[in-house]
Amino acid sequence: MPVAGSLSRIFPFLSGEEKEAFRQVTPIYPFSTTDYYLDLALRSKAVRKMLFPSLEEIDPVLQSFGEDDPLREEEHKKTSYLTHRYPDRVLVVVTNYCPVLCRFCMRKRNWLKPRFFITEEEIENVLRYVSANETVRDVLISGGDPFYLELERLEYLISSLEKIPHVEIVRIGTRSPVTDPEWVLKSDICEVLKETSKVWVNVHYNHPDEITELSTSAVRELQKCGIPINNQTVLLKGINDSADILENLFRKLQSIRVRPYYLFRCDPVKGVLHFSTPISKGIEIIRTLFRRISPLAIPYYAVDVPGGLGKVPLMPERYRKEGDKFVLETFNGRKVIMEDEFPPKGE
Ligand SMILES: *Cc1c(COP(=O)(O)O)cnc(C)c1O
Ligand code: SF4
């Protein structure tokens, strides 16, 4: 990727502060992009903030409230690449490579580590662990970006997982349709995915500006392989923390047949805290969206509890229980009382 060349091309367009941020921040949190995403950043303020380093990332006071790994992904590993937290699903981080480094990344701690891709031996360890644990029905392949694994290796990992009878789904998390759609269109990744039967893909759009024509083509290519696609968004201060922007994003996602699955509160990760919003902000936004659009376009709002305690969906309260009755709030804010069951208790 001719990134260095591109950067010198854009350097004249950067503000003094942006240049300073490149100098001070990138030795700690590096910069990387595709030409595609760089061009998008030059046209969209929101994308620019997700791509270009800022001095806030190394603000010693602000970032002292963060940890490198608040979710304890490293501590809770069962093999070098596998985390088993929930009874029915495991997470496998197969690489730390991403062509575009997102400033809000919760796995920033891996950026300066030497680039790794899961080895054949380590794949065998993962397969042994999953085979031996029959409660595991769902395997998440994440990264970095798994679409950049050597394709034969990715194919082997997926097909071996699919052969394990108790594995019902294999989920791949990738941001490449957003940051590098040309890769999805030009590599043989779709050839690999066409042959699978249990794969779901989770993509990661944060802003409507990211849903371009090219990105939509990449998504369509994956859909042609019969793959259901869901989206995870991170709530980011100054980028998408408004009901209007998120309504627009979720509607656009639906119009390309991508289901909004999660809206995450930005985790308290060191180097990312300047993007963090109050927990209540997300609840308020979801409450507003329930008044405007179908739940089919509304994701779960979730907070990952520090300490590795897992994700908790925090949806706005739409009911309360009063004795044997329910008080429900309708889409336009009306309160309605309903019996729990028929015939009503105590009559
Ligand atoms: C997020 C996560 C999962 C998947 O959780 P879902 O809520 O099912 O999407 C699985 N394992 C770990 C360790 C996770 O962090
Ligand atoms: S694509 Fe995901 S893992 Fe990669 S840098 Fe962005 S947020 Fe982090």
TrEMBL record:
Gene3D superfamilies linked to this entry: Aldolase class I
Coiled coil: none
Keyword Zinc: no
Keywords: 4Fe-4S, Iron, Iron-sulfur, Isomerase, Metal-binding, Pyridoxal phosphate, S-adenosyl-L-methionine
PROSITE patterns: RADICAL_SAM
Cofactor(s) listed: pyridoxal 5'-phosphate; [4Fe-4S] cluster
Domain Radical SAM core: 84-296
Key word DNA repair present: no
InterPro entries in UniProt: Aldolase_TIM, Lys_aminomutase/Glu_NH3_mut, rSAM, rSAM_sf
Signal sequence interval, chain numbering: none
Family of the protein in this entry: Belongs to the radical SAM superfamily. KamA family.
Protein name from the UniProt record: Lysine 2,3-aminomutase
